[in-house]
Amino acid sequence: MEQPKHLARPVVDPDLPSDVRDALLSRPDLLTPASGEPPPDTGGARRPVVEALPTVPMAVSCAALPVVCLPFMVGRDRGLVLGGLLQLGLAGLWWGRGFWPFMLAEVVLEVAFLAWLLVSAGVRTDPAHLARVHHGRYYVDRDFTVRPRRQLTTPPRRLMRRAQEAVAAVQRSAVGRAGLLYDMVHPVDLPRVEWGIAETLAEHSARERRLAEILHRRGNSAEARAELEPHWQKLRADVDVVVGQVEALERYADRVRAADAVYREQRPPSDAPPVRLARPVSGDSDGSDGSDGSHGSDGPPEPVSLEDSLQEARRAARALPGRPVT
Fold first, then answer.
1. Which of 16, 8, 33 shows the shortest CA–CA distance to 191?
2. At 62, which helix (H) or strand (E)?
3. Region labeled Disordered — which residues (predicted)?
4. What pairs with residue 302 in β-bridges?
């Protein structure tokens, strides 16, 4: 089902497994607002447990390297912590107690991982069930909807759409698909940036709805408006912070588009020297670059390379919310 362009698309917690995220996004009509009730339990299909029998080698691998496997099974942050503790425990057991106690622990872990995988294989995996189980770890358009009273200069829904359009522009870019942005925030961190903005905007929207409801219950009186005004001011200030984050994301997307234009124009062979694309010089040249400044906007072009464009995108990426790029 195609999402109307004026609505925000669903945003799913990037820490969920990729197959769960894909299943949730495949049926946005089943998702309910995080601020409301979870979807009803409609039942659903279960995977036959026999399908999980080939996971025995996976259980053995997970027992040997839990720090690698657990982030994919329970989410990155929790998986790294739990897997790291198990890995350190195994190493300490081998070092302190010897080989056979270590092997016994490995067997116990293999059985535990196998049981986990078998149980997981029998859990319902249809989108309706996942939408209920993971309610609160995704946001839909209604999470960013506020009353039409215009207390906020920039509606959260519009901010969310702008952020999603910027993220989509980067993800669609040729330089991104070519891997030239991989060492910046694309593609690993962009979903996290989008999720962070969505979390904040959903919380702001909920605050706005609560304040509007209080004002409505009190008859929209002047006394109520005066009493609530400090709360509105705090909310508007918090929304302005997100406006800055969205604008930084849009600037990054603009730099990526510029780099994309250079990349599409040049398409250099991998063994060729850098090709430079002409860019007009601004008309306020004072001749300090060796020209007499008489050419104005029609003067000689200043060359721009793909490397320069990507470096501008890198600088813009450092202003994004979350982890900076170094």
1. 16
2. helix 56-64
3. 1-47, 262-326
4. 279
Comparing 265 with 239, the larger pLDDT belongs to: 239
Listed range (53-67, 80-94, 107-121, 286-300) with the worst mean pLDDT: 286-300
Tokens of 261: 């234009």
Tokens of 131: 């939408």
CA distance 73 to 84: 14
Separation between Cα atoms, residue 214 and residue 99, nearest integer Å: 66
Q: Where along the chain do its domains lie?
A: 11-136, 145-267+311-317
Tokens representing 24 are: 């949730």
Rounded to an integer, what distance in angstroms lies between the CA atom of residue 314 and that of residue 324?
A: 10
- Which residue, among 227, 191, 223, has the nearest Cα to 11 in the 3D structure? 191
Question: 297: which 2 tokens?
Answer: 């906007």
Chain length of the chain: 326
Half-sphere exposure of 226 (CA within 13 A, CB side): 3
The alpha-helical segments, DSSP class H, found in 123-189 are: 127-133, 156-172, 174-177
**6-13 average pLDDT score:** 89
Mean pLDDT of the chain: 79
**Residue 67 near residue 77, CB atoms below 8 Å:** no
Q: In the numeric block, which tokens belong to residue 80?
A: 């790294």
- Residue 127: asked if its preceding bond is cis (omega within 30°), the reply is no
Largest CA distance in the chain: 84
Q: How confident is the model at residue 123 (pLDDT cuts 50, 70, 90)?
A: low
What pLDDT, in 10s, does the model give residues 250-269? 999 999 999 999 988 877 55
Which is nearest to 93 in space by CA: 80, 106, 111? Answer: 106
Q: What is the pTM of this model?
A: 0.66
pLDDT at 28 over 90: yes
